[in-house]
Amino acid sequence: MKEYANVTYLNHPVLTHKIAILRDKNTPTSEFRTVVKEIAMMEGYEALKHVATKSVEIETPIEKTVQPMIVGKKLCFVPILRAGLGMVDGFTALVPTARVGHIGLYRDEVTHEPHEYYCKLPEGIEDMDVFVVDPMLATGGSAVDAIKMLKQHGAKKLHFVCIIAAPEGVEVFEKEFPDIPLIVGALDRQLNENAYICPGLGDAGDRIFGTYRY
Ligand code: PRP
Ligand code: URA
């Protein structure tokens, strides 16, 4: 797999362990949700490491001091519905004052092309650091569409955070947006004939919301 300057693969045993829990088809919905949140928090910690801070004067029990603090209203987390919703709580646990936008996309089961059905973004997104979150980067179609929508709304400082990526999705994303940081929890082998990631974890949305029928 080609290396890209803006792609970070988070090879950490704690993360790999938690992603293995998600992969297990016997993991129930309740645990799946909890672990997605924990993973999102760990990935968010890494993804947010370059966000801007401002100097704030505070008073400790000992003395006054000036400390760097994150300005939450300059940050926006954007889950791609549905599955991205599972990652929001992990990110807002890190920065509770951040704004949250929503983009609704679903993949056509036959063509695997994404279709937009919802978009609600905060005002002033042009000046915010925007973190798009979605557990799965498969063909890359949904990620590319979401970023294009955000750019159309004026967003300039964009990042994409996923839990599992297929090499095919990384290639597509990098071809479209070589300058946008892409944070990946685990890089898997390939897509199958239904554009599912192998070994993957199945349908992330169905597993988070308990809507699967298998
Ligand atoms: C899943 C996932 C991504 C998309 C990835 O969503 O959460 O958004 O597929 O696939 P892609 O890279 O090939 O576009 P899905 O469309 O299944 O919708 P859901 O979250 O509502 O289940
Ligand atoms: N979407 C999912 O939820 N899982 C995959 O493996 C691919 C796309």
Question: How would you summarize the topology of this molecule?
Answer:
Layout: E1 7-9, H1 13-23, H2 29-47, E2 53-59, E3 64-70, E4 75-81, H3 85-94, E5 99-100, E6 102-107, E7 114-120, E8 129-133, E9 136-137, H4 141-152, E10 157-165, H5 167-176, E11 182-187, E12 190-191, E13 197-198, H6 204-209
Parallel strand pairs: 1-11, 4-5, 4-6, 4-8, 8-10, 9-10, 10-11
Antiparallel strand pairs: 2-3, 6-7, 12-13
Helix pairs in contact: 1-2, 2-3
Can you describe this structure?
With 214 residues, this protein is α/β, with parallel strands linked by helices. It has one domain (7-209): Rossmann fold. It contains 6 helices and 13 strands. Strands 1, 4, 5, 6, 7, 8, 9, 10 and 11 form a 9-stranded mixed β-sheet that branches. Helix 1 (13-23) runs antiparallel to helix 2. The longest helix is centred in the first third of the chain and has 19 residues, at 29-47. It is globular. The two termini are 33 Å apart. The model has no long low-confidence stretch (mean pLDDT 96). Bound molecules: 1-O-pyrophosphono-5-O-phosphono-alpha-D-ribofuranose (PRP) and uracil (URA).
Ions and ligands: 1-O-pyrophosphono-5-O-phosphono-alpha-D-ribofuranose, uracil
User: Given the helix and strand composition, which structural class is it?
Assistant: alpha/beta
Count of alpha and pi helical runs: 6
Series of secondary-structure elements, N-terminal to C-terminal: EHHEEEHEEEEEHEHEEEH
The whole-angstrom Rg is 17 Å
Task: Report the end-to-end length measured between terminal Cα atoms.
Answer: 33 Å
Can you name the CATH architecture? 3-Layer(aba) Sandwich
What is the arithmetic mean of pLDDT? 96
Q: How much of the polypeptide forms β-strand, as a percent range?
A: 25-35%
List unreliable stretches of 5+ residues: none
Helix content: 25-40%
Structurally, the number of domains stands at 1
CATH class: Alpha Beta
